[in-house]
Here is the input.
Amino acid sequence: QVQLVQSGPELKKPGASVRVSCKASGYTFSTYGLSWVRRAPGQGLEWLGWISGDNANRQVSLKFQDRVTMTADTSTATAFLQLGSLRDDDTAMYFCARSLFTSSFDYWGQGTLLTVSS
Amino acid sequence: SYDLTQPRSVSVALGQTARITCGGSNIGSKNVHWYQQRPGQAPVLIIFRDKNRPSGVPERFSGSNSGNTATLTITRAQAADEADYYCQIWDSGINWVFGGGTALTVL
Here is the structure.
């Protein structure tokens, strides 16, 4: 069965960077992309970006274009999200989710809690 | 940009029908997906491409989309349906966008 397993919680200071991983199993990693979505406290879901499973294509929300880096390692079936210049309002649960380009998100990781605090 | 407008909250009596709307300009021309997120859990896809249910999603959940409004309908509402619900579309230029979310309360 399809599974997306994310890395553990992170505590970072403002201005730092964070790297979150999402390890996929149960399907051919290169044939699906992965999106990154977050939910801040009291807020709704927010899409950050999408990377193809072959690491060849990326789409990033305009809001995060200068702070988000995404990579996909086909050898380990793992995707990574790096978010830089962290601010207090980046505190949120971050999810990876599987999708084909333009399509719905059919499987989700369990979430990674990022807390940004001085 | 493209905005998707959802009511912040909807209440429904146990066993009755709940309808959650998602408004957007000419949304009927786009594919709308719906997600359910229970507290402390990851979102779950419950409707894709307007009206299709993934395997395992009860028939009580249905979707429609026309004009400027997409609608998620939940019949015979149960306590387990209490959750936040999000609509989503993909559009060229903005990629994916979510509605603001609707908190469903089952009374």
Strands of chain B lie at 9-12, 18-23, 32-37, 44-47, 61-66, 69-74, 83-91, 95-98, 102-106. The radius of gyration of chain B is 13 Å.
